[in-house]
Design a protein that fits this description.
By secondary structure, this protein is an all-alpha fold. Helices cover 69% and strands 0% of the residues. Helix 2 packs across helix 3.
Length: 89
């Protein structure tokens, strides 16, 4: 992660999108927008990997574990829908 400066990627991308849509605000530096996109993509991939691991390895023997499993599966379904894949695949 040393490649990425200490940035708030979501804030940068939201500000850039507001500027792109015509807001009277200064535009972001292109390098920071690129870093923000890369960081969001990296974080998303790591999150998806962790959720898949959690969904595969969490035993459903307690109410807490069952709740964690439901949350992980719900997040994975949202990710798949956004990617255009059905959750059943």
């Amino acid at each position: 992660m040393k490649k990425y400066p200490n940035i708030n990627a979501r804030a940068i991308l939201k500000r850039h999108n507001r500027w792109r849509r015509g807001a009277e605000i200064p535009h972001e530096e292109p390098g920071f927008v690129g870093f923000a996109i890369e960081l969001i993509c990296l974080e998303h991939a790591e999150m998806e990997k962790t959720l898949l691991k959690l969904a595969r390895t969490t035993p459903i023997h307690s109410e807490q574990a069952s709740g964690m499993m439901r949350v992980a599966l719900s997040c994975l379904q949202k990710i798949k829908r956004r990617k255009g894949r059905h959750a059943s695949r």
